[in-house]
Amino acid sequence: MNETLLQVKDLKGYYRGTFGVVHAVDGVSLKISEGERIGIAGESGCGKSTFAQLITGTTTPLLHYESGEVKVNGFDVWKISPEKLRKDVKCKLISYVPQAMQNSLNPVLKVKEFIRDMLKERTGRKYSVKEAREMAADHFKKLGLDTHVLDVYPHELSGGMTQRAVTAISTLANPKLLITDEPTSALDVTSQKRMIELMIDIQRKGIIKSLMCISHDLSALNQLCDRIIIMYGGKFVESGKADEITNNPLHPYTRALMDSLLPLERQTKNKLLKSIPGAVPDLRNPPPGCRFHTRCEKCMEICKSAEPPTVEKKGRSVECWLYSGEWSK
Fold this sequence. Notes:
Blueprint: E1 4-17, E2 20-33, E3 37-41, H1 48-56, E4 63-72, E5 75-76, H2 82-89, E6 94-97, H3 111-123, H4 129-142, H5 159-170, E7 177-181, H6 189-204, E8 210-215, H7 218-224, E9 227-232, E10 235-241, H8 242-247, H9 252-259, E11 310-313, E12 316-319
Parallel strand pairs: 3-8, 3-9, 6-7, 7-8
Antiparallel strand pairs: 1-2, 1-4, 4-5, 9-10, 10-12, 11-12
Helix pairs in contact: 3-4, 5-6
């Protein structure tokens, strides 16, 4: 049985400020085992990036951990000290590549100089630029990346190369779990393919054990991931094998997401695209019952008042009254 690398139980994280309280992540649970590649999909504002931050144990201003459990290889990231989190968990067990990864590099330092400073911060030991470059060069070669990247400033790199370089740097310490947020966004099709191939290669070569990829692009997740989780309004509404989620979605929201994608296959080239009516809910005041009911074509009276149970169906998990009790098909 594969080792459990990440265990999340009933996690809640809210933004608090003069604007009120935003229930961005509102009671979600997840388990990632060694060898898995998990995708999390949903519209902008559904809580994907917030969830990733909460897993790392370090959040941006205004985002507050409220309750729940996040264990990374046995370490509860919200119960251990910040020093232990920095030394024993980050980079070694879990590494996070944020959505704005182009801003991760220092614009006034060459990439090799940035890596030198990063190694010093992580280990407490002073490295020369030459030592840092040699360590990084071996890693880049293993991943098939041009080592010339190490000798230039960030502004001299293309967007695609920057994203691949930051991903490679994030795996220098061979973390067990890599979390990437929108790794293929703002890239052309060729660069997207290279990025997907890089992430698969990182796992195939044993540099990481598991991957969690956050994206609004279901087609990219279908190519990269074994399992996909659909998130809406701060909650997980469906999860299952990637091909089952994309080919036979159960939750009305997942179906709506698939209907809004541009079809590329010949047999569906005449398919009409459908937009999802309405907008994502204001999570300062989440709607009662199912949070998708205000936009759902299959909405029933019970959906407006009672939160749907989590139902196991066809090997998948789905939160929808359509598949529970008297509403089941």
